[in-house]
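Course assignment 3, question 2. Fill in each field.
Student: A.L.
Task: Predict the tertiary structure for the chain below.
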Amino acid sequence: MTAQDLIRQLQLLPHPEGGYYRETYRAAQTVANADGQPRSVSTAIYYLLENQDKSHFHRIKSDELWFFHQGQPLEIVIIADGQLTTIVLGPDADKGQVPQAVVPAHHWFGARVQGGRGYGLVSCTVAPGFDFADFELADRAALTREFPQLQGVIEQFT
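Answer field:
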């Protein structure tokens, strides 16, 4: 099965941060987010990156859990306290890959296919649920001013 087959079969759409997605779940029950705004308790999506596609640096106001399904491992890069952390989401624990990872709320992060070839299909769950009002795509210049020591990776993911 190819990435294009999965995009068609799972009815994925282009995502503003890069890659393809489709929301698969949105809880009917709501809670207040950190800003006091009502949000679904939880949401879930399919998310696919192919070849050189990237999830560009962005942040949201909720924790996000990533679950590996198939394809090539994905590298999730996170800026936390001025340091860069990379989690390899994939099926091979012997190679240091993990099948599940958490990106804490308010952290800048992005992702790419490890090695830049093939595709990776994952699911992402957000709690409280995702809302585009809580989504911020990074500005390269602003992020570089904040983290000048990470200029190279910021250029790759913005």
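Instructor remarks: The first helix runs from residue 3 to 9. The domain at 3-28+38-116+127-133 is CATH 2.60.120.10 (Jelly Rolls).
Grade: pending
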